[in-house]
């Protein structure tokens, strides 16, 4: 029986130039997860962070050599990533990173604006003092990450805050719809954070809607939250159009 301590660890011999990545960010050590989970998490991170651009090929032999794994765990990881819509598996052809459909993203954001308005109204009415204090602590951490320009950590915490607000609405159907749609725009949403101007604007919007939540202005909070989502959607589409033109 294999114990956690004896599980194989994924070797990290990643060479950005060999995969023609869009950035040369150093890789981070992969620990504690199973070999399969590490592989899924790493490739997912590379796609979301833009290291593997939309349409980029994912040659099995090169990836196996890069990560020091056999084709079996790599192909299992590909199945998970394909189910998440991040890559496309093609019979007898090399898998590729799934392109982002700007029209679909625009339509999803239209729905998410409405969902955030409903979630914001309900969350502000239901939130306890402890709930608001917890969100305040997360917001303070978000501000600190912005100040130190920790973009990836900021993005993850930003998503956590939005999820916590939606959970506070106390509506399981709304939460399920929001989570499903959010997963569909997650990679595209990360694109907006690469624009410094939008990053600053986004933080100011967070500060504005948090102030409304503290004052328990449910209507104002809902409007500010949905406006923030609309602005994020507009920024995402602008960035996607710029990349398409380039």
Which helices and strands occur, and which strands form pairs?
Blueprint: H1 16-19, H2 35-48, H3 60-67, H4 71-83, E1 87-90, E2 93-97, H5 102-126, H6 129-147, H7 151-168, H8 172-192, H9 196-214, H10 218-245
Antiparallel strand pairs: 1-2
Would you write up a description of this structure?
There is one protein chain. The chain is mainly alpha-helical and 246 residues long. The protein folds into two domains: 94 residues, Winged helix-like DNA-binding domain superfamily/Winged helix DNA-binding domain (Arc Repressor Mutant, subunit A); 144 residues, GntR ligand-binding domain-like (Four Helix Bundle (Hemerythrin (Met), subunit A)). It has ten helices and two strands, in the order H-H-H-H-E-E-H-H-H-H-H-H. Strands 1-2 form a two-stranded antiparallel sheet. Strand 1 and strand 2 form a beta hairpin. The chain is elongated.
Radius of gyration, CA atoms, in whole angstroms: 20 Å
Q: Any idea what the shape is?
A: elongated
- Helix coverage percent of residues? 55-70%
- Biggest sheet character: 2 strands, antiparallel
Order of helices and strands: HHHHEEHHHHHH
Per CATH, the architecture of the largest domain is Up-down Bundle
CATH topology of the largest domain: Four Helix Bundle (Hemerythrin (Met), subunit A)
CATH class of the largest domain: Mainly Alpha
Given as residue ranges, the uncertain stretches (5+ residues, pLDDT < 50) are 12-18, 21-26, 28-32
Compute the average pLDDT: 85
List the strand order in the largest sheet.
1-2
What proportion of the residues form beta strands (DSSP E)? under 5%
Task: Write down the domain tally.
Answer: 2
CATH superfamily of the largest domain: GntR ligand-binding domain-like
Give the total of beta strands.
2
Count of helices?
10
